[in-house]
Amino acid sequence: MNHYPLPEPAARAIAKLGRDISLARRRRRLSQASLADRSGISVNTVRRLEKGEPSGSIEHLARILHVLGELKRLETLLDTGTDEIGLLMMDEGLPQRVRARQSKGAL
Amino acid sequence: MNHYPLPEPAARAIAKLGRDISLARRRRRLSQASLADRSGISVNTVRRLEKGEPSGSIEHLARILHVLGELKRLETLLDTGTDEIGLLMMDEGLPQRVRARQSKGAL
DNA sequence: GGAATAGCACCCTAATAAGAGTGTTTAATG
DNA sequence: CATTAAACACTCTTATTAGGGTGCTATTCC
């Protein structure tokens, strides 16, 4: 039950994120070493993240964004409550558990 | 040179993200098992992510967002080029390497 | 109300990533 | 244009995580 390969779009999204981190860092005139130090992680990890390696942890990403002052963006990454009020109302009736209704093979 | 504790705001941001993933999943009427299966990861991993444990990897997050159809949000997480054209132009002059100009203790 | 099962909370082990170290390349800048 | 060090590319080892299992709780839905 293990990993099929990382979908290409997902890989590209991660790579893009890495480039943007690098850009944001340089805009702030921080070296990789400096960012790593302030974030409390190793330079290697910063480098791997900027390089777009998918192995990085969300914690490290959050630490970096925190230092960059862009934590809000992570917090609202999948946020929907802000724009769609009707959606929010709908959510009040959302099931806590989702029952398998699929008759065929979609589990 | 290891980890000082994860800053509280960062932890909260990750927790929020986890809740939003859970919400998005239930909106789509997917069980944790189903989402895990489609994403090619284990149920435990999905659960830990939704629970807000910071240990999850960016790859897993990307896989999940891909299944949820929200990969764009990750891709543009730190994207700045879209709104600020002037900023983009400024970036053309950005240094590839950032030199330590800090005279004191700010490394 | 009762049966079925989604979700949770563990534990354990194999797989993986983070950290540290070393050497090299190359951009910034005095 | 020479110096300095930022960034890159590795390797190795240890720490951490993902996966898989089992049992339990409690929500759906008939």
Task: Specify the biggest β-sheet of chain A.
Answer: none
Could you tell me the radius of gyration of chain A in angstroms? 18 Å
Taking the alpha carbons of the first and last residues of chain A, their distance comes to 14 Å
Strand content of chain A: under 5%
Low-confidence stretches of chain A: 102-107
Which word captures the global form of chain A? globular
The chain-level mean pLDDT of chain A equals: 85
Report on this model:
2 copies of one chain form a homodimer. Chain A contains 6 helices and no strands. With 107 residues, chain A is mainly α. Chain A is globular. The relative contact order of chain A is 0.10. The model of chain A is unreliable at 102-107 (pLDDT under 50). At the A-B interface, helix 1, helix 2, helix 4 and helix 5 of A face helix 1, helix 2, helix 4 and helix 5 of B. The structure holds a DNA duplex (30 and 30 nucleotides).
List keywords for this structure.
DNA-binding, disordered C terminus, mainly alpha, 56% helix, 107 residues, 6 helices, homodimer
Question: Can you summarize this structure?
Answer:
Chain A is an all-alpha fold. Chain A has helices spanning 8-27, 32-39, 43-51, 58-68, 71-75, 85-91.
